[in-house]
Design brief:
heterodimer; A: mainly alpha; 14 helices; globular; B: Rossmann fold; 6-stranded mixed β-sheet; 4-stranded antiparallel β-sheet; 10 helices; 10 strands; about 40% helix
Chain lengths: ~300, ~240
C-alpha cells in the first residue's frame, strides 16, 4: 500500500509540484480578486521573483531561502510601486494597466541580456525547490487567508468587494486595503516565481507573459472566488486537465476555454458552488424550505 | 454641528450644487427636500467627502472638512444611510452591523448591536440571514442600524422612505424621531416632503442646485408654494 503510494508520488511528482505551485499563485490572485482587482500583473511579479532569486543563488551563491524571500520582496515592491497609479483605475482599465506592467517586464527580460540571458533565458538552474517547500508555503497561505476572512479586516474587504462606496462611508480606507492586497498578491507571485525558477531548470521571458497571467486569474475564478478552497480546486483542476487531455493538443485548449465560459455562465461562484446546489436541492427534496443563496441585489 | 457655506460641488466639470448654504445645529433634525435631480444626494455626498467640493466650506464642529477623505470624515462622527439602502447583500445582518462599527475599537460594540436589535426586533430574528434576502423595509432598518453602529454625532439619511410601503415608512420615520430625541443630530434628505417635515424642526428646499426656501417645518408646511410644488396642492 505504502509502496504503491510512494510510486504514485514518484511518477507524478512533477504534476504534484505544479499543482502546489499553481495553487500558491491562485491564492495570490484570490487576494487581489477579494477586492475586485482583476490583475494581469502576475506574470510580471513572477518574472521579477524568478530572475532576482536566480541571480542571487547562481551569481552570488546565496542560499535558497533568502533568495526566495528576496524574490517575494521584489514582487511586493513592484506592486507597491505601480499600485499608487494603477489602483486609481477601475475594471477594464485596471486590467489593461496591469497587463502593460507584465509586458514591460517581459520586454526588459528579453533585452537585458547580461542579467536575464535575453531570449535564450537562463539554463542549468539548480533544482532547489522541494515539494515540502511548496506544501509549507501553501499551508501558511491557506492559514493566513482563512484567518483574514474571519477577521475585522476580512469583513472590511468583503464590504469593499461588494460596494466600495458603502465601505468608505463605514470609515474603511478603501485605497489602503486595495494597495495592501495588491502588494500581498505581488509578494506571493514573486515567491511563486522564485519557486518556479528553481523547479524548472530553465527560465525565459516567455514563461511569464500574458498566458501565465491569464491562467493565474482562471484558477480562483474557476474554483470559486468566495470559497477558501476555491483557488486550490481551480489550480489543481486546471493543471491536471491538460495532462489528461494530452491525446489532443488542439482539443485541450478548446476544452479549457469552453469550460471557463461554462463556469462563468452557470456557476458564477465557481466550481465549488456545485456542492452548494446539491445541498440545496437535497433540502427542498426532503420538504424543508431551502434558504435562498444571496443574489447581489440592491 | 454642521455649517455648509456657499458649497459648489458636482461630477467632473459640471457643478450640480451652485452654491448652497445650510446649517444643522447640534441636536436638531433638519430636512432637505426637493425634486429629482435637485442635488439632494449630491449635498450629502459632498458632506461625506464622496464628491469633491469645487468651492465653498463644509464645517463640522468648527473644523473645515471639505478637503478630507471619506474615512476621516466618518471618524469625525458623520454616518451616512445611503440612498437605496445598499446593505452588503452577501453578508449576514450581524456582520453588516459589525462593518458599521469598523471605526470603533472599544468594547461597547456588542452592547450597541444589542441596542440595534432592541430598536428593530426584525433584525434580531434575522441576524444570521443574508442581508440581501430581506425585504426593503428590513434592509432600510439594517442600513439605519449599521450607520448607528459608528455612534455618529451627525446622521445623514438619504431618502429613507424610498420604495417602502406607507406603514413601513411611518415606522422608519418614528425611528428617526427617536434617534434624534436620544441626542443624535440628523440631516434628512427626502422627496416625501410631508413626512420629512413631520419629524424635522427646520427645512430647506433645494431646487436645481440652489436653496429656494428655508424655514421652520411648520412654516414650510403652511407655505402655499411648497404645498403646490411638493405636497400636492390642497391635499
Amino acid at each position: 500500500m505504502n509502496a504503491a503510494v510512494a510510486q504514485f508520488i514518484a511518477s507524478y511528482s512533477n504534476i504534484i509540484d505544479l499543482c502546489l505551485l499553481n495553487s500558491l499563485i491562485a491564492y495570490g490572485l484570490f487576494l487581489a480578486l477579494s477586492a475586485n482587482m482583476f490583475s494581469l500583473a502576475t506574470g510580471g511579479f513572477m518574472a521579477l521573483g524568478a530572475y532576482s532569486s536566480v541571480y542571487l543563488t547562481m551569481e552570488l551563491g546565496l542560499p535558497f531561502a533568502p533568495a526566495v524571500l528576496a524574490g517575494a520582496i521584489c514582487g511586493a515592491a513592484a506592486a507597491a510601486l505601480i499600485g499608487a497609479p494603477v489602483l486609481r483605475l477601475r475594471g477594464d482599465y485596471f486590467m489593461l494597466a496591469t497587463f502593460g506592467f507584465t509586458e514591460v517586464v517581459r520586454v526588459i527580460a528579453l533585452n537585458w541580456d547580461s542579467f536575464t540571458g535575453g531570449a535564450l533565458g537562463i539554463v542549468s538552474i539548480p533544482r532547489y525547490t522541494q515539494t515540502w517547500h511548496l506544501v509549507l508555503a501553501l499551508i501558511v497561505m491557506v492559514y493566513v487567508v482563512h484567518t483574514l476572512r474571519g477577521s475585522y479586516f476580512g469583513r472590511a474587504i468583503a464590504a469593499i468587494k461588494q460596494d466600495d462606496v458603502v465601505a468608505q462611508t463605514m470609515g474603511v480606507n478603501v485605497f489602503a486595503y486595495r494597495l495592501s492586497l495588491f502588494v500581498a498578491s505581488g509578494f506571493i507571485c514573486g515567491m511563486a516565481g522564485a519557486f518556479a525558477a528553481h523547479l524548472n531548470y530553465f527560465i525565459g521571458p516567455g514563461d511569464f507573459g500574458l498566458v501565465r497571467s491569464v491562467d493565474a486569474l482562471t484558477y480562483p475564478i474557476l474554483g470559486g472566488v468566495n470559497a477558501l478552497a476555491g483557488p486550490v480546486v481551480g489550480a489543481v483542476f486546471t493543471t491536471i486537465l491538460p495532462e489528461a487531455l494530452r491525446f489532443s493538443n488542439q482539443l485541450r485548449e478548446i476544452l479549457m476555454g469552453a469550460l471557463v465560459v461554462a463556469v462563468v455562465l452557470y456557476l458564477p461562484d465557481g466550481a465549488l458552488s456545485v456542492l452548494k446546489l446539491r445541498r440545496r436541492s437535497g433540502k427542498s427534496g426532503s420538504g424543508k424550505v431551502a434558504t435562498a443563496t444571496p443574489r447581489t441585489k440592491q | 454641528m454642521l455649517e455648509v457655506r456657499n458649497l459648489k460641488a458636482g461630477y467632473g466639470a459640471v457643478d450640480v450644487l451652485e452654491g448652497i448654504s445650510l446649517s444643522v445645529p447640534t441636536g436638531a433634525c433638519v430636512c432637505l427636500i426637493g425634486a429629482n435631480g435637485a442635488g439632494k444626494t449630491t449635498t450629502l455626498s459632498a458632506i461625506c467627502g464622496l464628491v469633491p467640493a469645487s468651492s465653498g466650506e463644509i464645517v463640522l464642529e468648527d473644523k473645515e472638512i471639505s478637503r478630507l477623505a471619506v474615512d476621516t470624515i466618518v471618524r469625525r462622527g458623520v454616518s451616512l444611510v445611503p440612498e437605496g439602502r445598499r446593505v452588503v447583500a452577501n453578508m449576514s445582518v450581524e456582520d453588516n452591523l459589525l462593518v458599521g462599527a469598523y471605526t470603533r475599537r472599544d468594547d461597547q460594540v456588542g452592547a450597541d448591536i444589542e441596542a440595534v436589535y432592541q430598536r428593530f426586533g426584525r433584525l434580531r430574528e434575522r441576524r444570521k440571514q443574508y442581508a440581501g434576502s430581506m425585504s426593503g423595509g428590513e434592509q432600510q432598518m439594517l442600513a439605519i442600524g449599521r450607520a448607528l453602529m459608528a455612534r455618529p454625532k451627525l446622521l445623514l439619511l438619504d431618502e429613507p422612505s424610498m420604495g417602502l410601503a406607507p406603514q413601513i415608512v411611518n415606522d422608519i420615520f418614528r425611528t428617526i424621531r427617536e434617534i434624534n430625541e436620544t441626542g443624535t443630530t440628523v440631516l434628512l434628505v427626502e422627496q416625501n416632503a410631508k413626512k420629512a417635515l413631520s419629524v424635522a424642526t427646520y427645512g430647506y428646499v433645494l431646487e436645481t442646485g440652489r436653496i429656494s426656501f428655508e424655514g421652520s417645518a411648520s412654516d414650510l408646511l403652511k407655505s402655499a408654494q411648497i404645498a403646490e410644488a411638493y405636497l400636492g396642492a390642497l391635499s
